[in-house]
Design a protein that fits this description.
- The structure holds 3 protein chains of 3 kinds.
- Chain A is 29% helix and 25% strand.
- By secondary structure, chain A is an alpha+beta fold.
- In chain A, a hairpin with a 3-residue loop joins β8 and β9.
- Chain B has a 5-stranded antiparallel β-sheet with strand order 4-3-2-1-5.
- In chain B, β3 and β4 form a beta hairpin.
- In chain B, α1 crosses α12 and α2 crosses α17.
- Chain B has 17 helices and 5 strands.
- Chain C folds into 2 domains: 43 residues, no CATH class; 223 residues, MetI-like (MetI-like fold, Orthogonal Bundle).
- Classes of the chains: A alpha+beta, B alpha+beta, C mainly alpha.
- Chains B and C meet through α8, α9, α11, α14 and α15 of B and α1, α5, α6, α7 and α8 of C.
Chain lengths: 522, 375, 317
Amino acid sequence: MKSKSLLAVLALAAVLAAPLAAQQKQGGDLMFATFSDPLYFVPFMHADSASSDVLVNVFAPLLNYDKNLKIIPWVAESYQISPDGLTYTFKLRKGVLWHNGEEMTSNDVKVSYDLIRDPAVNSPRRTVFEAVSEITTPDRYTVVFKLSKVDGVLLNAFTTAYAVPASEIQKYDKTKLKESAFARAPIGNGPFMFEEWLTNQRVVLKRFDKYFDGPVGFDRYVYLNKGSQATALVATEKGETNRVFVPEAEVARMSAIPSLDVHRYVGNVFDAIIWNCKGEITSDVRVRQALSYAINKQAIVSGIYKGNGRPGVSSFIPGTPFYNAKAPNYAYDLAKAKQLLDEAGWKVGPDGIRVKNGKRMKLFMITNKGNIMREKILQYVQSAFKVVGVEVEAQILEWNTFLTKYVEVGRFDAYVGGFSTGLTADHQAFYHSEATPSGKGYLNRGKYANAEVDKLLEAIKATADTAKQAELAFKVQEIVGREVPYTFLINRTQAYAYNKKVKNVISYDLLGWYNAEKSYIE
Amino acid sequence: MSKHSASVPSSAVAELSESTEYSDTFGKKVGVIWRRFSKNALAVAGLFILVILYTLAVFAPLIAPYPEAGDPNADIFMIDLPPNTASYRVILFDDEDFKSYVVFEPVRGQAYYRDVDQNRYPADAAFLAKAKAGGSYLQDEQGNPVLFTPNFMGRDELGRDVFSRILYASRISLTIGFVSVGISILIGVVWGCVAGYYGGIIDNIMMRIVDGIMCIPTFLLLVTVMSIGRPSIFKVMVVLGLTGWTGISRFVRAEFLSLMKRDFVEAAKCVGAKDRRIIFRHVLPNAMGPIIVAATMGVAGAILSESGLSFFGLGVQPPAASWGNMLTNAQELNTMIRAPWKAFYPGLMIFITVLSYNFMGDGLRDALDPRLKNS
Amino acid sequence: MWKFLIRRLIQALPLLLIVTIITFIIINLAPGDPVYMFVSPDQMDKANLDLVRRELGLDKPLHIRYLVWLGNVLRGDFGKSFFYQRPVMEVLLESLPNTLVLALSATIFSFAVAIPAGIISAIKRNTPIDYFFSTISFIGVSLPSFWFGLLLILFFSLRLGWFPTAGMQSLDVKGPVILDRLKYIVLPTIVLGMGSMASKMRYMRSSMLEVIRQDYVRTARAKGLSGFVVITKHALRNALLPVITLLGLIIPGLVGGAVIVESIFGWPGIGRIAITASFNRDYPLMMGNLMLTSTMVILGSLIADLLYAVADPRIKY
């Protein structure tokens, strides 16, 4: 029953933080217990979370979020967007140093972002910067991005797309950055500098004393690869490590351990059922609605997720201005579910399974092996649908097979998936009719198509006005709420446990640990 | 009692005369073996337990108190409930915290409730009032709170009855053990016999093939085979059997290499016995030891490796259960510490099965041992 | 003897060739596509997928790709891992020593326990001590290693604090390096050893039983030799055949790693690398790993054959 104290902990931490900020206490090693190894430390080439967990401490972005999710200047001292929305001008701080001692200049930014945009580099961030047509550097501290069209969410990209020192990165063949020496030993401008990486053992970062927003608290920031989640948790419980990600099932137990503080915050992650909108049975919107009514989301949240989350309503994240809490929701209602199925022509057959035109109502539902929560959801949904007379053939598949042989080729009636979304209003990836595997690629694997939604989504991206974006996003949620390409199950809460010796830890909803460089160990 | 000491040739004759006696009618032979077998109390106990296990598996739907897939609307409120013989009433009430369900647990006249973290509190008047005001009972058609039958092995991560799942799971697990080990033993023994008996170039070729098969990664082979058509657990069993025989063939062959040079085999060859007869009458019974061990260990291995396969999405698919799969699902740390029954009972079943197979195998080996005829 | 050795080593080459061909076909037939591991979801349009496929050399027909791979291997180049973007051998050899250390220590541990226990079990057949060892060994095979491993960690590491939870070495080693390493290797050794110990014990027991009944052992006993001498001098050698076979079967495992034990104990071994490679359809890494384990399978089989002849002089090739 720890969750009630969540806000209280944060509030308390914030109060404590104020006086401490004046005089930064230093010392101690943060030992983060992990269980998967990073891949390569080139900031715009990685796509895995283990790498980004490290990079976020080695590099500092041009812009950052404040605790209210407002974008603020960071390594850039200020930024300006021209009234037509086609020119972004960043003024860099003077005296920001790379870990090799050189000063960060506008050229570093230009070189880095040009690499991201270069098709030969094939950065996973390339499409994010599609609107950028040219980058210029009028002086040593000024970078200008020229856009070919307005992009309403481009600004957010500068909070995560890090620049790298041009003098270093240009040593390597740009098509082989992942295998460069930089990828094993990055040079950044963040609060910690890279020291050592032993494969499947540890990554060690050292305090960077010339960090522009210094001084930094910890002596070292160490990622200890404990091999499995269970071991990582035990190591933290024992005190060998002092920070660990806590999965939903463990939150209650870890919260009860006296030496630990568990921080919980709203994550930008949700789980959903993705319907095949072109499927033989699931193309009927009434079927999708009916089956949404047949799922007890509250039970999934309380039972499977042990209360770590909220029943899902939308792909937009609660806490952002784009979240429409009033979007059509499907509260658990078996009578409505049965009625809708009857209306759709699926009548209960002799063995309790519905039949239409001699065809049994049998759905093929899948999820990937490896996420134990989604495996449980699939099993729950399987038996829940049986109650309304729908048979489910369920399969839990290995990730690569799942992706390439089933999801990407549309071989499913529905699948249980988890997604993390950006904090922006751009949700084309989920709903746009071209964001399908056969189209431009992306996440609309159920091939949902609605021309009005497409237009709304494009309009969101074409304006930089947050209020306008929110208004359009609300409409999108109205429509997709009615047409149910997704049944949103849960918006998950995330949790990290810290040893109580780690002081001055502040976590914010959607942002997580906000001040790693200001925390320390007593 | 002397039969084939290394230096006395006459023992070979004794061996031969014995095996003529041994090769009487099939019925008589089985009678002899059974008589010896039945004298071994442990072996009989092993057989008895196996018969019970297989019977339970066959009649699982009749015995299991709950369906395999459980009842979603009730079970979801009983996730990780510990073993208990008391009945439960389930009360659901929502509060802002989403800690929304409690289990009402009358124990010896005193009512208790548990929260989602399994902490138990006495159900005092204040609680009852709160439950009535803010909550809703899980009701049957008449509006009465639902009363649950006991679940003495506890409930699993989706609130399903562990005992029922174990019964259903035994159908798959016992079959996997039997089928895949059966196939492996059959191929492995014949392959090893032939290679070891003929030796030379035949042995060399056959054993190089074994080396080759051992090199090929089984998991990948399984993934590939499964991708042809719909995955099914029977395909898994067969592939496991078809790839799992290499070790056994090596054991059998090693025994043969050694036994072939013994006098009794030379003697049998001298009197013109046929190859097949020498292999199966004279040599194989002497090589039974490792085969029985391999079979017993193989049963455990197969049952557990099915759970390993599920990492590749190749194991049983929901809602079906297998012992291995129940163990894997109980891998969360939380389970280890707070709900150990989810893993303990499937583990216990595997243990009992392996133990029974082993005692039975031990007894069978003794019963088949030509040297022990009169002892 | 030398002739036999050389003949076998020559035979190994065509065998390896055939194995690589078969495995190459299997891993390419397996469902899944490494390309999807390289492309972020927003760029999964066909043009980009094809581009990446071409870059990885996956656009060519299977037999060409095999020949290219084989040609490179013959020149000592095992290619670059798709997933890690590093040379295959660099990735494998980095973890190989760790795997060897753990595997050897587990093998020694399991033999050291299993052989005496198996012998005692056989001699004292159907006595409480036999039942004790039997029960232990069956618990050993029924207990999945992730469970056993976690139990040990919870008890010896968390509760008693005797050993670290997981890893291979401390961040800042205090005192002698060897002591630090020892602290880390104890628990994984027990768990990894336990699994194979059970079967070794059973094989040892079974073949001991077989041998004890042989007449020459009875004769030796009748001559008045003490039980211990009989066992060690006469019986043991002949009872070793299955154990040698086991040894041959274990040798490939020395470099194969053990995914579950490595994961539970955070051991930086080759098993974790290999499983990641399969999950990601990292073909070059999978083939590199295959070469490594295949070589050991062939070696294991060869060593076993040589040892048979040592244990039982009647066996000749």
